[in-house]
Amino acid sequence: MPRPIQATIHTQAFVNNLAVARRAAPDARVWAVVKANAYGHGIERVFDGLRGADGFALLDLAEAQRVRDLGWRGPILLLEGVFELRDLELCSRLDLWHTVHCDAQIDMLAAHKTNVPHRVFLKMNSGMNRLGFAPDQYRSAWTRLNALPQVDEISLMTHFGNADGPLGIADAMAVFAAVTSDLPGERTLSNSAATLRHPDAVQVSDWVRPGIAIYGSAPDYPEHTAAHWGLQPTMTLAAKIIAVQAISAGAGVGYGSNFVAQEAMRIGVVACGYADGYPRICPTGTPVLVDGVRSRTLGRVSMDMLAVDLTPVPDAGQGSEVTLWGRAANGAVLSIDEVARQAQTVGYELMCALAQRVPVVVAE
Predict the structure, then answer these.
(1) Looking at the annotation, which residues are catalytic?
(2) Domains of the chain (ranges plus CATH)?
(3) 84 Rama sector, left if φ>0, alpha if ψ -120 to 50, beta otherwise
(4) pLDDT band at residue 364, thresholds of 50, 70 and 90?
(5) Quick one: pLDDT at residue 68?
(6) Is there a cis peptide before residue 359, judged by omega within 30 degrees of 0?
(7) Which of 5, 13, 123, 295 could form a disulfide with 232 if both were Cys (CB 3.0 to 4.6 A apart)?
């Protein structure tokens, strides 16, 4: 039989989470962000749950081709735009909209020979200092684009670096508004955190761009949990106990004996390790669900195994289900955000790090 570990993708959770974004932005259209192979879930696996979106946003031309191959005929946006001139030919063939964030991309459009002009999203750097034209260069970039016969409609775009925290978005909003107030075109400003936390940004967004929220992770954890926002986990990682050890006080567990038992106890050895995508850095005490009951990891995570405390679940044993994150068989939920915090990272990274060797199934 195959090794007893499996990831499950929950289609109806995507439907729910997309609805949460729509309720937060009732007058805007919604991009479903499916970059990085749908945050590690698999584009083909999430498509049915997200086909209610108004468009798909991603980075990679090959992923755009996959979305078209699934039968999607609506908008697809390349969030980083094109990287070389010949990419524009595929944009024309696949009818892709694309971001313009630098002069080199405008130069490519000017050199592009096409009979069908492009829909572009002109990006402003409103303070995140990642991609986009500086505010004092934005209008000249717009003027250059507007003069090109290769360009049809120009939409206006920015991205918030602090929508999830106390610094907020007021300064970025003010910069964006001051520069673009009299420019025509649709606006897209709001990522997950802005969509859920900042209605002032939503009110001026013709399109919102929820990413992590549609995958069931809170964009502002730990201030708010996924449950607070009404989000449901879209990925469950679960494995089974493959051995049980009864250890005495003073016995160590795992490499380095990082955990030493204070009293006699039973531990379960689980068929999951860092080669499956579970973070090695997770310390003793990282939460798990054993047969749907909350427990904890013990000791250092190995390549293929980790240990869990069976004290809260005295009836658990070999073959018992251990939920590493997501939804247990009894309906109990362990948020991926809790596990990520123990690993000193964010839920995004855990989703994207799911190893290829882990079997994946799609469920309702």
Answers:
(1) 35, 255
(2) 11-218 (3.20.20.10), 235-363 (2.40.37.10)
(3) beta
(4) confident
(5) 98
(6) no
(7) 13
